[in-house]
Amino acid sequence: MESSRELKGKAIAEVPNQIKRLGAHSYHVKSQTGKGFYRIVEKKFKWICSCPDHEYRAVDCKHIWAVRFIQAIRKEVEESQVQVIEPVADIHACLYCQSPLIVRDGLRHNHYGDIQKWNCKACGRYFTVNLGFEKMRATPRAITSAMQLYFSGASLRGTQKFLRLQGVNVTHVAVYKWIQKYTALMEKYLDKITPQVSDTWRADEMYVKMRGNPKWLFALIDDETRFWIAREVAGSKERHDARHLFQEGAEIADKKPKLLITDGLAAYHDAYMRELWTQDRHTEHVQHISFSQSGYHNNNKMERFNGKLRDREKIMRSLKTPETPIISGMQIYHNYVRPHMALDGKTPAEVAGIEVKGENKWLTLIQNACQKKNLKT
Q: What is the spatial distance between Cα 268 and Cα 262, in angstroms, rounded to a whole number?
């Protein structure tokens, strides 16, 4: 039987605008007897409320129950919106006559690995399928291993040395060309998938070098899922027009944030006023924050994010051009491949409703991107 506090919490959750979500583990619930609100936060898997009922009686108050009901509803909605990217299964029809009467017929051996041969019983023709890796001398495993090594911290030459130990003799230039080719392929495919991000976004910039010249990498990430929504490279920090960053973010997420958190850079506020501010103020802008500031308005998440990018940039020693595929690859690796401890071992894409299946996520993404491309052509 439901307790009285549980029933009251359910009643609060059913009334619009009673609960404001501040973050993944923080809420404001309006007081039912006054004009203020109570703050509910989750610490060490336990909910804490600032109301007298919880503080003095140490029980789950009606405000905590209200948050639980809201969370349960939100979880059901998110699970119904999950987009699953499955590994590409074996083919089911002949490439020439489209007959389903196909059987495996041995392997084609080459210097770098084996490829499955197929025989069509209808037309009698043989064919092989190596989706996404046609005419590549190296195997899909070698190529995806190289991408995983590089974006997880190895240099191009370090990746080359590892492949040589596996019997794959390629140059570091070939490794870069693999990154260039497959990053562009995946980026076009993933740009058409909408992540289910929260209503709180963070923007920040970091100094990078490109061929020795100073540049600034502007990044926009989601506060809850850590999903890297948008990016752009600028030659100036103070004079940069950040409107395109917010425009791209709104296009990718298919919505605008309700809260934007940045530092005190004037470029952000100018872009906010032009792109996100409206008469009814649907988007709030919080700025002049610092690393040490307490609460969810601090910049700790962006500092950690920038630190990861900085570690990657040090190994590369510098980027080459603003159009370099390395930044795109870093974004794909961050969002879809690398698990995050702060997300309970999930990737930002998983938390944002995009699940990439398979042990080799690089392979799943490449083959799906190539399959979609072939269907269009």
A: 7
Amino acid at 76: E
126 or 363, which is more confident: 363
Q: Give me the domains of the chain, ranges plus CATH numbers.
A: 4-80 (no CATH), 200-321 (3.30.420.10)
- Of 199, 305, 217, 196, the C-alpha closest to 260 is 199
β-bridge pairing 259-261 and 200-210: parallel
CB neighbour class for 367 (10 Å; exposed up to 12, middle 13-18, buried from 19): buried
Q: Where are the alpha helices (DSSP H) in the chain?
A: 4-14, 52-57, 62-80, 140-151, 156-165, 172-190, 243-253, 266-275, 300-316, 325-332, 348-351, 361-376
Question: Confidence band (pLDDT; 50, 70, 90) for 294?
Answer: very low
Could you tell me the pTM of the whole model?
Answer: 0.75
Element of type H or E holding 98: none
Q: Is the pLDDT of residue 286 over 60?
A: yes
**pLDDT score at 298:** 57
User: Tokens at residue 325, please?
Assistant: 């595929």
Query: CB under 8 Å to 340, separation ≥6 — which residues?
Result: 226, 346, 347, 348
Residue 313 is predicted with a pLDDT of 66
